[in-house]
Design a protein that fits this description.
Strand order of the largest sheet: 2-1-4-3
Structural class: alpha+beta
Radius of gyration: 27 Å
Largest sheet: 4 strands, mixed
Distance between the termini: 56 Å
Oligomer: single chain
CATH superfamily of the largest domain: Isoleucyl-tRNA Synthetase, Domain 1
Number of domains: 3
Helix content: 55-70%
CATH class of the largest domain: Mainly Alpha
Order of helices and strands: HHHHHHEHHEEEHHHH
């Protein structure tokens, strides 16, 4: 950051980051407008069937309105800008829009209108807060997506209201987000392709926790790359080799065999053993060679010793994985 009143150094990286953010806002707005019904969405008609995901983003927006207003009244413009940026990019675009896609693509989902109403409500209020920083892009989108107000410049500023304070729903969706992050991290560590879906079990002896995942089952399955989501009170029917993600009051399990093709994984690990044997043979040969040890710089010898220790540790891990798979 920069202290108020000081000159700011020019960075192309910041220009590119701002361009990327403008593109993100523009594309999110286009996606929302593409899914709007011909008759439009009246924001004065709040839907009764708001889901936990809808209430979560409305509650997040509500808090943002309060915080940004306070920051702007104190002339903390940089802090306000950061909060708006984080909300739009992460919470709204990366999470909420992805959560509601299954509802938007289903003509039979009776909460589709609620999703569209929430998308429009959140986007418009976010644009109003973003307008002092990005006046032209926000004005263009604002005048296209609604016709109730003439211009974003003279539109009413969003106001915090207790009506949109949904603490319980906010906590519920944050738990599901934590589970999704855990699943994604585990799959990444195991080199599982995003296209490969696997069954996901959510085990909890707490009924309230099970209800949270039941209510968010549709978007949880999509974000967690799940072929099926099964919610239960105990570990019945789950294999011992299932991969787990531990959460507060719940554990998420994924069957190992559904994540990995065991035959192909054994083949891959056996090739890795071959490669490591060659590397170990090379490094062991060098360190056993008196000419190398007596003439090479100490730094080079230490590097080879570090490689030897690294390859030996990798070999242990690979052989352990092979043993487990061949059981």
């Amino acid at each position: 950051g920069n202290a108020p009143g000081n000159d700011m150094r020019f960075y192309w990286e910041r220009v590119e980051a701002s361009r990327n953010f403008a593109n993100k806002v523009w594309n999110a707005s286009r996606f929302i407008m593409m899914n709007m019904p011909e008759e439009g969405i009246d924001l004065n008609k709040k839907p009764e069937q708001l889901t936990d995901a809808d209430k979560w983003i409305l509650s997040k927006l509500n808090t943002l309105v309060k915080d940004v207003t306070d920051n702007m009244e104190k002339y903390e413009l940089g802090i306000a800008a950061d909060k708006i940026y984080e909300f739009i990019w992460e919470e709204f675009c990366d999470w909420y829009i992805e959560m509601v896609k299954p509802r938007l693509y289903s003509e039979t989902d009776d909460t589709r209108y609620a999703a569209l109403w929430t998308l429009k409500k959140v986007l418009i209020d976010a644009l109003k807060m973003l307008h002092p920083y990005m006046p032209f892009v926000t004005e263009e989108i604002f005048c296209t997506i609604q016709d109730e107000e003439e211009s974003i410049m003279i539109s009413s500023w969003p106001v915090y209201t207790e009506e949109y304070a949904f603490a319980n729903e906010e906590n519920a969706v944050e738990l599901i987000k934590e589970a999704v992050r855990g699943i994604r991290n585990t799959r990444a560590e195991m080199n599982v392709k995003p296209s490969k879906k696997a069954k996901v079990f959510v085990v909890s002896d707490d009924e309230a926790t099970r209800n949270i995942f039941e209510n968010g089952k549709v978007f949880f399955a999509t974000l967690g790359h799940a072929s099926e989501v099964i919610i239960q009170a105990d570990k019945t029917g789950i294999d011992d080799d299932a991969v787990s993600v531990v959460l507060h009051k719940a554990i998420v399990y994924m069957p190992f065999a559904e994540l990995v093709d065991i035959a192909k994984e054994i083949e891959r690990l056996e090739k890795e053993v071959e490669r490591l044997n060659k590397e170990l043979a090379r490094v062991n040969g060098m360190l056993a060679n008196p000419n190398f040890v007596s003439k090479a710089p100490e730094k080079k010898i230490n590097e080879e010793k570090e490689k030897q220790a690294k390859y030996q540790e990798m070999m242990k891990q690979v052989q352990s994985q092979l043993e487990n798979l061949k059981k």
